Amino acid sequence: MTVHFNYTVDITHYPLNRQMLLQRSERLLQLLHLEAAEVSIVLMGDAEMTGYNELYRKKKGPTNVLSFPARQTDDGFVIPEAELGDVLISVDTAKREAVEQGHTLHRRLLELIIHGLLHLTGYDHERSEEEALRMWDFEKELFQHLQTSRSANMPYLAINVDHVATIRQARGGVEPDPVFAASLCELAGADGIVVHLREDRRHIQDRDVRILRQTIKTKLNLEMAVCPEIIDIALEIVPDMVTLVPEKRKELTTEGGLDILGNDKKVRKAIEKMAKAGIPVSIFIDPDASQIQAALDAGATFVELHTGRYCDARTIAEQEQEFHLIEQSAELAYESGLRVNAGHGLDYRNAGPIADLAFIEELSIGHAVISRAVLVGLDQAVREMLAIVRPA
User: Fold this and answer.
1) What CATH number is given to the structural domain containing 193?
2) What is the pLDDT of residues 265-298, one digit of tens each?
3) Which of 106, 203, 306, 344 is catalytic?
4) Do 120 and 111 meet the contact criterion of CB atoms below 8 Å apart?
5) What letter would DSSP give residue 261?
6) Of 139, 186, 223, 327, which is the active-site residue?
7) Which of 106, 115, 163, 196 is catalytic?
8) Are residues 188 and 137 in the same domain?
9) CATH number of the domain to which 118 belongs
10) Is 145 considered catalytic here?
11) Range(s) of the domain holding residue 71
12) Residue 4 among the catalytic residues
């Protein structure tokens, strides 16, 4: 089974997830029982597609997809039996169609890949209305299978050690030390450490952040409110990244995403300061298209999608609804040029599906891992979560 993907130079400005498109195309061949097949998929712009459409279909302008089944040529050259043929897709047209349908570009591309490959296998919606309906139903079935297939994505795992500090602060002593906990997390395989330096210093202290900056071997992500005092500390220690989050004095933990639209000026100023210091900025937001656009406009490098509603869902239907919202938002943010993380409330039961999403780069998990560590130890707790997020 071989899928050859080719991308023409006129679509290089599109942020396409090539690994995901290849993986799902290969999975599609498996679903069609064509494991031995070989197919070529070419993604191009409208200008080149227009030429093919006029040459082979005698129609003006571009189309979304063209399929060319392999067959014996006039000069007697025999195409290898495993060769299915070629599928040409205009990304420019696919993008317009995605916007019109209210979908993401990658969703539309996947639909067109399915449509094109079915043509290569003999389906033809132009032969009859009955076959058109049969083909349409099969396309929907295949699309659903591909959406639920496990992604080859292997996101990074960052461990939040705030709750180690919470235990320490409960007695006002020096143990357990979140700095030592962070080193154990790294030794267990964590890809980064997250701490939230709150204005009220309820758990992580200034001392913790400064020592962590000196000792962390992976990546230090400093969560913070858009607060002048905390901004100054971030500029002083220069973490590997900062994540801007909302903060309320009376909340037990962060209750929702940051409303960028309602805090636009403060967020922009904070990002400008971080940019001058070379610190990438992520913004913790609800999975909402308007907040994604606001994060992009404000100059953020990342968004971290709030997964709380997904984790707190009380019914399967509600959880599935929240999951698909996160999935769509991750794809939209990626296509907008943002890098995508996710976190809040993720545990050993619900982190797996989020880790499978193709556009999410890193998961931030804290409370579940620290709670599990009380029973099995921190090293084991981190390794168990890694097995879920990045299974062998």
Assistant:
1) 3.20.20.70
2) 999 999 999 999 999 999 999 999 999 999 999 9
3) 344
4) no
5) G
6) 223
7) 196
8) no
9) 3.40.390.30
10) no
11) 2-148
12) no
